[in-house]
Design brief:
Layout: H1 2-49, H2 80-85, H3 89-96, H4 135-138, H5 146-154, H6 156-159, H7 173-184, H8 199-202
Helix pairs in contact: 3-7, 5-7
């Protein structure tokens, strides 16, 4: 009896462990299924509450340069003499209003924080009498040609390192051309505009095949 009881007792313990293992697996499977159902419900509720609307045009339009068939970005090269030839002096005069806090524009006008700008186009750099130029501008040689003035107006502190001029600059080439054409009018003998290239000047030289 003892042996039979012992065998029966061992078998009963084994069956009890199997039942516990099965119950544990059922709990794990239920937890996984419950998590999956919760995620599905949250997604459905979120989709019902939030309906994104696609704008027909972006809020901030960003111009991206077009690329050719080979993937290279095509950059438009504009001849500055052409911009000057088509510049608008009236628009340049409006741009010059940004400078009135530091400069005067009339002939014989007093210097302000900056020198008087009458006759600036074509004038020798750092040459206005009585104005205390920075050492950086004093060391600048040559004259204010259209090219020099354009480079300076685009980024004063970048072009003349150490200049005391606080103007941030004009990044658009056409704005610089408009302003220079206006400044050019402030002169008894305005500097001639550079000649714009003709169609023949910009046409590349092409070797014609020999006539056989």
């Amino acid at each position: 009896m003892a042996n039979e009881f012992g065998v029966w007792h061992l078998m009963t313990d084994k069956n009890d462990h199997s039942g516990k293992d099965g119950l544990l697996l059922n709990k794990i499977a239920g937890a996984v299924l419950g998590s999956f159902l919760t995620i599905m419900v949250v997604r459905e509720v979120g989709g019902a509450l939030y309906h994104p609307q696609n704008l027909e045009t972006p809020a901030y339009a960003i111009e991206v340069p077009e690329s050719n068939a080979h993937g290279a970005v095509e950059v438009e090269v504009v001849d500055f003499s052409t911009l000057l030839a088509n510049a608008d002096s009236a628009k340049g005069e409006r741009l010059a209003k940004k400078c009135v806090q530091c400069h005067t524009f009339d002939k014989g006008g007093k210097n302000g924080t900056g020198p008087n700008l009458w006759g600036i186009i074509g004038r020798a750099s750092a040459s206005v009498a009585g104005f205390n130029y920075s050492s950086a501008l004093s060391a600048l040689s040559g004259s204010w040609s259209f090219d020099e003035m354009s480079n300076f107006l685009e980024n004063p502190k970048g072009y003349v390192k150490g200049t005391a001029m606080s103007f941030a600059g004009l990044r658009k080439p056409q704005d610089r051309a408009n302003l220079m054409v206006y400044l050019r009018t402030l002169d008894d003998n305005p500097l001639p505009l550079p000649e714009a290239p003709t169609a023949e000047d910009v046409m590349p030289d092409v070797d014609m095949p020999a006539d056989h």
